[in-house]
Amino acid sequence: MPVRIAHISDTHLGTRPSQGVKQNVWGVEMRTRLLENDYYERFSELFDKIAASDPPVDLVIHSGDLYNSPWEMNPTQPPPVAQEIAISVLKNFIEATGIPILIIEGNHGLYRTLEVSLLDTLKLAVPGLDIATQQDLKKVFSKGEPLVTKYDKMDVYCFPFMERNVLESADKLQDFTDWITSHQRPDSKRPSIAVAHGMDLDKTLYSEIFSMSYDYIALGHDHHQHKHAKNAWYAGSPERWRFDEIRHDKGFLMIDISEDHNIEIIPQILEYTRPVFNETITIDNDDSVDSVMDKLDSLLQDIGVKQDWEPTTAARIRIVFEGSSSHVNSLDLSVAMESKRLDLLDRDSTHNISQFVWSVKVPKTEHDPAAYPEIESDYLIENPKDDFLEYLGTVTLDEQYDSSMLARIAVRALKKSVAGDEGKLNLEDITEDDST
């Protein structure tokens, strides 16, 4: 019997870009900010398109990061509207189509210090919704049982996000990989799907999954929609979570599994009304701050954002400065850019821009973004801990101070500042892993 599934991922509901955003503009008046609302619209669009698919799907799989928070940089739960949207869209879809939905837990939307999950609450509110949380994974792992949801036409084996260092610190990594090969083995007679949230980059994608002969492996965590291995794909994120994501198509995947277990992957690509620009301006040897700003004006003219305000098409813009000049120092450039941003985002601006940020690539220590950098900021610091330690080496410290602890405090303070976290910095924050 053939099987069709829709694979979505990394919807990050509740994302609220805060750096360089035009103030006092709403997506829904007094409920959602303009750019926050884009994520809700994409989420609704996904399920509208899936509901209209012909032939219909047998199951919708979400491979993690339904919500954007809580996560390492923001311990608060998602905005109320994000939770309302999740409930209403999922509930309406299931009631209208009768198609079940399965969501696993990713690293976003995950409480790191509590034995609870937002997905548990969501399941209570949405009949027909199936979930697999990190707590579910811990329970079945300790009992030596599979984490599988069985449907009429297929079995789905779940691998919610699990950090490798957690397993290593508990001396459970080998036991965990043994659990995969022993208890997550599919029935060869039935179509089998694995759904996992992880990546090779941070070692949260466990290679044993790919040795289990699943018909399809639905992956989340990487926002780039692409094939990862045989019959294994990342669906990618449906909205542009970072500026560098404009290089990739965005959407979701349709997967057809035939009776003889052959599969066909059909990417579904979304289109956008809001442009996102990730542009580079080169600072030449003879440039001054004024000439650099002239280059910026020319670029804004070329990309077509000099027009009246229209909220649905107001652009998000990130400028990356590279190169150097003896006539341009970072302080003067920052002052000029701050002034420019105030002008571009002013209520009476002649430019249709909703967000304007920039970064500077420092010679010899050029920032090399990871596949999923989790800080979207005006400025980039390649290794703040090492930089601060290097600075401490140039000053005389009282013997009572530990330079390593001071560096950790500085890194944590920087992270809280970038995340817009107004809470106090406490001992628990400082004693957590501060690697960058």
CATH topology of the largest domain: Purple Acid Phosphatase, chain A, domain 2
- Name the structural class: alpha/beta
What is the domain tally? 3
- Distance between the ends: 48 Å
Mean pLDDT: 89
Shape annotation? globular
Give a quick account of the main beta sheet: strands, pairing sense, barrel closure.
6 strands, mixed
Q: Give the strand order of the largest sheet, numbering strands 1, 2, ... along the chain.
A: 6-5-4-1-13-14
Give the SSE order as H and E letters. EEEHEHEHEHEEHHEEEEEEEHEHEHHH
Enumerate the spans where pLDDT stays under 50 for 5 or more consecutive residues. Answer: 365-382, 431-436
Approximate strand percentage: 15-25%
Q: How big is the Rg? A: 24 Å
The helix tally amounts to 11
* Helicity, as a percent range: 25-40%
- Counted beta strands: 17
Q: Give the CATH H-level superfamily of the largest domain.
A: Metallo-dependent phosphatases
CATH architecture tag of the largest domain: 4-Layer Sandwich
> What is the highest CATH level, the class of the largest domain?
Alpha Beta
Structure write-up:
By secondary structure, the chain is an alpha/beta fold. It folds into three domains: 3-269, Purple Acid Phosphatase, chain A, domain 2; 276-360, no CATH class; 383-436, no CATH class. The chain is built from eleven helices and 17 strands. It has helices at 34-51, 80-97, 118-125, 134-143, 164-169, 173-183, 289-302, 330-344, 384-392, 403-418, 427-431, and strands at 3-8, 26-28, 32-33, 59-62, 101-104, 129-132, 148-150, 155-159, 192-197, 216-220, 226-229, 232-234, 251-257, 263-269, 276-283, 315-323, 353-360. The strands form four sheets. Strands 6-5-4-1-13-14 form a six-stranded mixed β-sheet. Strands 7-8-9-10-12-11 form a six-stranded mixed β-sheet, with no helix packed on it. Strands 15-16-17 form a three-stranded parallel β-sheet, with helices on one face. A hairpin with a 3-residue loop joins strand 2 (26-28) and strand 3 (32-33). Helix 1 (34-51) packs parallel to helix 2 and helix 9 (384-392) packs across helix 10. The N and C termini lie far apart (48 Å).
